[in-house]
Amino acid sequence: MVQESWNSNPEAVQYSNEDVLTEADRDHFLSLLRKMSSTLSAQKEAAKALWQLMKKMPSFRALFGKSLDAIPQTLSPLSQSKSGTIETRSNAAATLFTLSAPDSNKAFVGKSVALKPLIDLLDEGHPLAIKDVASAIFNLCIIYENKSRAVRDGAVRVILKKIMNEMHVDELLSILANQKAVEEMGELGAVPCLLHIIRETSRAHNKENCIAILYTNCYSDQSKWKDMWEKKIQKESKK
Questions:
Q1: What three-state secondary structure class fits 116?
Q2: SUPFAM superfamilies recorded for this chain (predicted)?
């Protein structure tokens, strides 16, 4: 989980102009990326430092988008589900969240293999990681192409399970407002969950997302999905 204590990193570099990166800045950035593929202690240090740099200077986010090795190196801790610690994997997710702030970086990250390890980490549901990983997936899926990629990589089942357990509904529900996701949700018994959210939530955007998902199936789909969803809605509404 992202901690504000990261700001006390003793090795943080001092910058005189937050809009211009020097050669030393670039070298420091690349050295941190290399550490993401190193030992666990080095990964932990590098992830914290990268997160700090991205928060402080948008120029580093642009530099990230230009580095061909940035994504594989940042993903290294995330892919180590057995050997990596939950802290280093959570730190990597938080770093990806910050790095993907510009839409150009969202597309860059989405075209890599970033979403699958993030979805796997979300599925594990570790308390130290779930907030950072849910935020990272939400941020990446703001652009349509990444939302489709997330569905392809198995996000629907994982996200629906979290939503049914009322975990990070705000971040995750909007990802399911996708045609392919909606079709899969019909098979996973999502209608009762969506109707429950509509009845119980006080957040307007959550209601809107649920209604959009139901509308997509019941009024746009002329196949078997329409009949199946209408029957489920009628049954649930009578309770």
A1: helix
A2: ARM repeat (SSF48371)
